[in-house]
Every structure is written in C-alpha cells, then in structure tokens.
From TrEMBL:
Every NERD domain range: 90-207
Organism phylogeny: Bacteria, Pseudomonadati, Pseudomonadota, Gammaproteobacteria, Alteromonadales
Name recorded for this polypeptide: NERD domain-containing protein
Superkingdom: Bacteria
Signal peptide from the UniProt entry: 1-23
Chain ranges passing through the membrane: 59-80
Keywords in alphabetical order: Membrane, Signal, Transmembrane, Transmembrane helix
One protein family per Pfam: NERD
Length: 256
C-alpha cells in the first residue's frame, strides 16, 4: 500500500511540475500572434501539443488524487477494524480468565459453570458472560473490561474512569447486572437466590472503595465461596441447568 501511495505522489508531483509548462504555453501563444504566417503554423502545432500534454497531466493528477483518497480511506478503515479486533480479543481474554479462575477454584460437585465460551447461544440470549449454579445460590457473572482507577458512584448512571491519562465514562455495571439477574430469575422461576457479580481486570482500582457486588478476576471465586448457606437442592440445580441451556433455543424460535 505504501508503494502505491508513493507512485501516486510521484504522479501528482509530475503534474505540478507541468504547471510552468502551461504558463510557458500561454507566452508562446502571445508570441504566436506576432510571428510570420509560416512560423505561426509551426508554432501553433507546438502550442497544441503543449496543451494536450497539460490536459493529460491534469487528468493524471485527478486520477492520482482520487486513488490517494481511496487508499487513505482504506488505510483508516483498516486501522479502525484492527483496533476493534484488538479490543474484542482483549475482552475475550478477560472472559476466559474469569472462566479459568472459576473452573480451577470451585468444586465441580457443588458448582456448575456455564460460560459463554462453551455455550455462546444460550448466554448471548441472556446477555451474560457466565452463570454459576450451586446449592448455595445462582450467580450471574458480568465481565467489565475497564481498567485503571474507577470512581464508584452506585447511585449514578455512569462511573468516571481514569486510565492511561485519559478519562472514560463507564455505564453503571451494577444496574445492567441486576437487570440480567432478574431476567435469569424469571427463566429459572425462582424469586430468591439469584445474585450478580461484576468482574473487573486485576489492574483495576476502585475509589473510594470496592462495591459489594464488584470484584477482580483473581477474587471472583472467593466472592462466590463466601456464600455457604444452602438454598437449593442438587435436583433443583440440575433443573436450573436445563432451563438455562434450553433458553437460547427457545428464544431463537420466538425471534424467528
């Protein structure tokens, strides 16, 4: 792509160099009217040739400028798509870290982990990143990718965040997590025992203090294990698992 841009700049430069020739052509036209008839015929042919060359250079300039504009647009679009892909890859990496932290710390006999990596259709329909089912409660896990210093304002719709000397505004993740937990409670048909956790990267810092329903990736398992009071039987947990896994297909049929 860089070579094409250099070629186009060369063509534009050649066209610009042709501008003095056009001025010289005008001088030649003024000189033509004061010359003899035979000399006028010869010089008229030279002037017409010069005019044709100037027209060709003008057309080349236009084509080159259009092509350069197209290349610049293509380059900008490529860089934008590359940034989006990088952001998506980083978000997927954080979600995978959350799943690994849960899978390595929670006992498979008591905890069933349904991750978006394993069941994308089902959890996409619920708009959650992970669901942990256990006799001690149902946990809706929402992953937030925001790093840096996060000013927690639980009553506000946005949280100011400072990262890499830039200020960002994060929509209050607790509000969205509570709504998704309410949706899952309706799917499971249970009025209690459904909680939500918003998980941030390990390099995130909270100001003035960490909210109760937020944690970091390395803390997510401990945040779930602190609930030890049994609320559901193992049979209910299996029913909940079937309800979550079948919700995606049911929702797809309704939207079709």
């Amino acid at each position: 792509m860089i070579r094409w841009i250099l070629v186009c700049l060369l063509i534009v430069g050649s066209g610009a160099a042709a501008t003095p020739d056009n001025a010289a052509g005008k001088d030649a036209q003024r000189h033509l009217f004061s010359a003899a008839p035979e000399q006028q015929t010869s010089e008229l042919a030279e002037v017409e040739a010069t005019a044709r060359v100037g027209t060709e250079f003008t057309a080349l300039n236009l084509i080159a400028l259009c092509f350069v504009a197209y290349l610049v647009w293509t380059l900008g679009r490529y860089l934008l798509m590359r940034k989006r892909d990088a952001d998506k890859a980083e978000a997927d990496r954080h979600k995978w870290q959350v799943y690994q932290s849960l899978a390595t710390s929670l006992d498979a006999k008591n905890y069933t982990i349904i991750s978006r990596h394993l069941y994308p259709n089902q959890l996409d329909a619920l708009s959650v990143d992970c669901v942990v089912l256990s006799p001690f409660g149902v946990f809706v896990v929402v992953v937030a990718e925001q790093s840096g210093l996060i000013a927690v304002e639980t009553d506000s719709q946005v949280w100011p965040c400072r990262h890499k000397n830039k200020t960002h505004y994060l929509a209050n993740p607790l509000t969205a997590a509570a709504q998704r937990a309410a949706t899952l409670a309706g799917v499971l048909n249970t009025p209690f025992g459904v909680r939500w956790i918003v998980v941030f990267p390990d390099d995130a810092e909270f100001s003035p203090t960490r909210p109760p329903d937020c944690c970091k990736v390395s803390e997510v398992s401990l945040d779930i294990l602190r609930y030890t009071r049994c609320q559901f039987s193992h049979e209910q947990v299996r029913i909940f698992e079937q309800a979550v896994l079948s919700y995606g297909e049911h929702n797809k049929r309704l939207s079709a």
